[in-house]
Design a protein that fits this description.
It is a multi-pass membrane protein. Belongs to the MntP (TC 9.B.29) family. One of its GO terms (molecular function) is manganese ion transmembrane transporter activity. The protein is about 85% helix and about 0% strand. The protein is mostly helical. It has one domain (about 5-95, about 105-185). The chain is built from 7 helices and no strands. It has helices at about 5-25, 35-60, 60-65, 70-95, 105-130, 135-160, 165-185.
């Protein structure tokens, strides 16, 4: 897998965290740089950790499913991307207002898990494609950290304008990468 493809996957996966960071920046007016850093760190760690878990779980089955790796990548990335698109479009149609809540580490951990579940499935795809998981997970974690940190402050500045659009873009990127992997493996 090339660096550009990995960057697109990292960017696509980070869009959920980016959208939630925008929401956090919007909904927690009392939060500052410390909370923005903590948000970005938690999201980055979860986005890096989940593909590793998926990868090592997927490696146990990689030999048995290696002839189907391109189909698995297409289905998993297509499903994740499609789910992101549906959720973003639903949110665009029925926007939620900010609930009255305080910034808490417990809520942040729940957000970290929720935004990184998709990365678990990507880790399984990485296992069947025999990707260097440490490099890929680190790349995904750093990309997510940077996007989330920026998203927190963008939420404070621009409000909810970009959250769902970013999630739509992330979904389209993941679907496109799934198609690219499928086409390369099928016709190469």
């Amino acid at each position: 897998m090339g660096v550009f493809t990995l960057f697109l996957i990292a960017l696509g996966l980070s869009m959920d965290a980016f959208a939630v960071s925008i929401s956090d920046g919007l909904c927690y007016p009392q939060a500052g740089r410390k909370q923005a850093f903590l948000t970005a760190l938690v999201f980055g760690v979860f986005q890096a950790g989940m593909p590793m878990i998926g990868y090592f779980a997927g490696r146990t089955f990689a030999g048995a499913i290696s002839s189907l790796d391109h189909w698995i990548a297409l289905v998993l990335l297509g499903f994740i991307g499609g789910k992101m698109l549906i959720e973003a479009i639903r949110e665009l149609r029925e926007p939620e207002s900010c609930p009255a809540r305080k910034f808490s580490f417990q809520l942040l951990l729940m957000q970290g898990v929720a935004t990184s579940i998709d990365a678990l499935a990507v880790g399984v795809s990485f296992a069947v494609m025999d990707v260097n998981i440490f490099y890929a997970a680190g790349f995904i974690g750093v990309t997510t950290f940077l996007c989330s940190f920026a998203g927190f402050f963008l939420g404070r500045i621009f409000g909810g304008r970009w959250g769902q659009k970013a999630e739509i873009l992330g979904g389209l990127i993941l679907i496109g990468i799934g198609l690219k992997i499928f086409i390369e493996h099928t016709f190469a």
